[in-house]
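Obj.: predict assembly geometry.
Materials: sequence records (below).
Method: joint structure prediction, all chains together.
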Amino acid sequence: MPMVLLECDKDIPERQKHIYLKAPDEDTREYLPIANAATIPGTLSERGCAFCGAKLVIGGVLKDTIQMIHGPLGCAYDTWHTKRYPTDNGHFNMKYVWSTDMKESHIVFGGEKRLEQSMNEAFDEMPDIKRMIVYTTCPTALIGDDIKAVAKKVMKERPDVDIFTVECPGFSGVSQSKGHHVLNIGWINEKVETLEKEITSEYTMNFIGDFNIQGDTQLLQTYWDKLGIQVVAHFTGNGTYDDLRCMHQAKLNVVNCARSSGYIANELKKRYGIPRLDIDSWGFSYMAEGIRKICAFFGIEERGEALIAEEEAKWKPKLDWYKERLQGKKMAIWTGGPRLWHWTKSVEDDLGIQVVAMSSKFGHEEDFEKVIARGREGTYYIDDGNELEFFEIIDLVKPDVIFTGPRVGELVKKLHIPYVNGHGYHNGPYMGFEGFVNLARDTYNAVYNPLRHLAGVDIRDKAQSTPVILREAA
Amino acid sequence: MSACDTAAVKPAEVKLVPKDRGGIINPMYDCQPAGAQFAGIGVKDCIPLVHGGQGCTMFVRLLFAQHFKENFDIASTSLHEESAVFGGTKRVEEGVMVLAKRYPNLRVIPIITTCSTEVIGDDIEGTINNCNRALKAEFPDRHIYLAPVHTPSFKGSHVSGYAECLKSMVKTIAKTKGTPNGKLNLIPGWVNPGDITLLKYYMKEMGVDANMLVDTEDFDSPMMPNKVIDTHGRTTVEDIQESANAVATVSLARYEGATTGEYLKDAFEVPHNLVNTPYGIKNTDDMLRKISEITGKDIPESLVRERGIALDALADLAHMFFANKKVAIFGHPDLVLGLAQFCMEVELEPVLLLIGDDQGSKYKKDPRIAELKASAHFDMEIIHNADLWDLEKKIAKGEVKLDLIMGHSKGRYIAIDANIPMVRVGFPTFDRAGLYRKPTVGYKGAMELAESIANAMFAHMEYTRDREWILNTW
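Observations (raw structure tokens):
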């Protein structure tokens, strides 16, 4: 089967190059969706901007850092209260956003003074906080404010603070992916190896590309503690600014989200010779495999096997209970990019679920190579899917549950299809062994939600009766 | 401290002061384009096209989804680097044509600028002329209204953006004065579906044929057996055209739509009446009296009764539970000032009001502030251009002792951390269920709000064991 031109795309036929239906005996040499390309205006794409890729996804996760957004207030307002990444210090990162609140006069005469004032105010108002990331936005990039010079000046006047700058306005690149890249490369260029921390174990690693969604990082940290591995830096879940300056000290880079954070792992390999090891942290078989690979690197295989055995003994019966009941259910995944390939095989292997359609907002072709390799035949693989395409695909594949964001979740609710939050989760964490049981539970509760059956009943129709939905105790 | 003590010591002082910082920590409002998008979705068969980076749309759609638990269709021109250099008008033209082709029922596209496209200086009016020619050639039987909405993010806030988009849509669609239709234009401002439902009920009870600009009642939309999705504004192109032929306009919000009432007066000689936003008993009385005076319709017994029921409920609460309780209110200026008036009616003491954005000179002329100055028997501070850090800091420093906070969900952590009861009002209120369905305006709204306040205080008394035994008998 070649690439698919959906009915709703007949007036924008270039969309055919972005949608693939996998058939037997085909491979990605012949068919690979075009990805990381500019969105067609007016298509109601799901994509965000480069600024949010840097601030909201990576930098804003840090638990001890002021995120100063140099621009009008909207960029701060919009990247606040949209994520679920708690911290062990009271969620400083989720409570506050900072904006220079650019006004027209700053656009006309330049905004550097306003930035300097706002930076000093922020440090004065929050005297315990000594670290800051400054971001440009569309208008401040267009007028050419030199945020690096301002940061340098403030650091000179305040010797106890450290400031990092990120210059990726919302219009750069084609999606949030550009912002990931800019932050990764900027950080290694300017901040890594500017600090040394105490090393307490002979086994040290950076854990890269995990943002502590609903406590993912903290759950996995219990594994690393048991294994005796010191995590030098978490990039960036529950992480600190200063730990990230010490990334050069680790012996191994373990990468979960290769899309958002693979760049820094590659640079750490190139500049410091630290090997990069990619793992999947979602799913039992993947998590076990990941632990085995990490432990093999350090030569602590027995510890790894003991941990896996302990976790599986504890969680596998629960997982299997859900697997029995989710077997054969059809799932669609409409998220950012990497979760497509992280999840498609893990929900199939561990839960018996068939993933029938997947759409990525900002994945690159490399991500599609991975997901098509891992995914099923008869499944749709979509780059930058838009709303009308979603309706048509739903009609074609009839999923029992969709892993996606809350807005699309509200949309598919009207079609009597339950959603599970594929970005912030419903009730996570979802990583690790315990986490995947949480994912299974949330999926089960969604699929067996009585309301979707009640919604289909038309009380005017005498031939129908309202069903009683029976569920087993989990 | 009792009210008489205060009066005896010194006369009450009501101060109107701006925030004393330049930058913002925790903004109360989003930027202008966000407000413009909200006005746009209030019109039926309308998809706003936001000319800017993708984040300017994606996050705002998410914000609306969070508040209403619904999806709304809003498109982006997906501005990228080449547009920043060479101008982005081609992307507007492409976006308009793509929307027109893929959405056959589409009739209105507000073209909403952002900070980036205003800095670039794209000629929106000229582009609209080009688009109109292209649309006419491609779709000779359709008329799609393209409204230019200039909403740079570095001016005003989502409040002024809302007003700007509403005015532009009316200017674009209401072109000629026709036969008087006997209708009353009612401009409710940025309120909830529950408010719209109540206002429409009032008009029906009075026998007034009201033209609601805009009618957002269906922002609370059902899950139906036939899976139809009816989440959209109810105000049609015809309704907007007819606004020029109305007997009069009544604007209920000074900052959220009154400029449209002024426009209809200037362009079509439709008399314009701005009344106080109907929060509380007196403001509702004044609104109904004004409408009765304009239309010659009597206020019916049913509303006298509803008023009586509300007063009856309020009387149970005011001097027993509310008297002398100190309240802070933040949010939209029409909401904050209106709720402050309501507080005075039920003996709550609104000691701190926070209203945002750069409209200081306008607020100085607001008669509601003059009224509060004349009527307050306690010290009151009104901070304009405020952010939520102002509130947090005043509480932390003990500069204000509060019994209650009223505001939207963005301030939730202030209440959580300071352990002060908080009642969610305004926009957005994503951390409480179903508030969009409840009225806050009118007699019923006053009653329901007061009861929410009382119940929040009662729960707080119980959790803090603060004279919870009072409620052993009530």
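Conclusions so far: The longest helix of chain A spans residues 301-326.
To do: check interface contacts against the pulldown list.
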